[in-house]
């Protein structure tokens, strides 16, 4: 998973255990082959929060 700051564009790689998401097979996967999944969190990083 990654975190992308909406303000400065900084991208941080997150540890797998930093985000808890339960993935369940979707209807699409029953009809298509999924080759990759991406988890991207977007928001404001601490540096931008501290310096508005």
Shape: elongated
The low-confidence runs, each spanning 5 or more residues with pLDDT under 50, are none
What proportion of the residues form beta strands (DSSP E)? 15-25%
Main sheet characteristics: 3 strands, mixed
Domain module count: 1
Mean of all residue-level pLDDT scores: 87
Helix content: 10-25%
Q: Strand order, biggest sheet?
A: 2-1-3
Derived structural class = alpha+beta
Termini separation: 26 Å
Q: In sequence order, what are the helices and strands, one letter per element?
A: EEHEH
Number of helices: 2
Count of β-strands: 3
C-alpha Rg (nearest Å): 15 Å
Provide an overview of this structure.
The protein has 52 residues and is an alpha+beta fold. It has one domain. Helix content is 19%, strand content 21%. It contains two helices and three strands. Strands 2-1-3 form a three-stranded mixed beta sheet, with no helix packed on it. The longest helix is centred in the middle third of the chain and has 5 residues. The two termini are 26 Å apart. The model has no long low-confidence stretch (mean pLDDT 87).
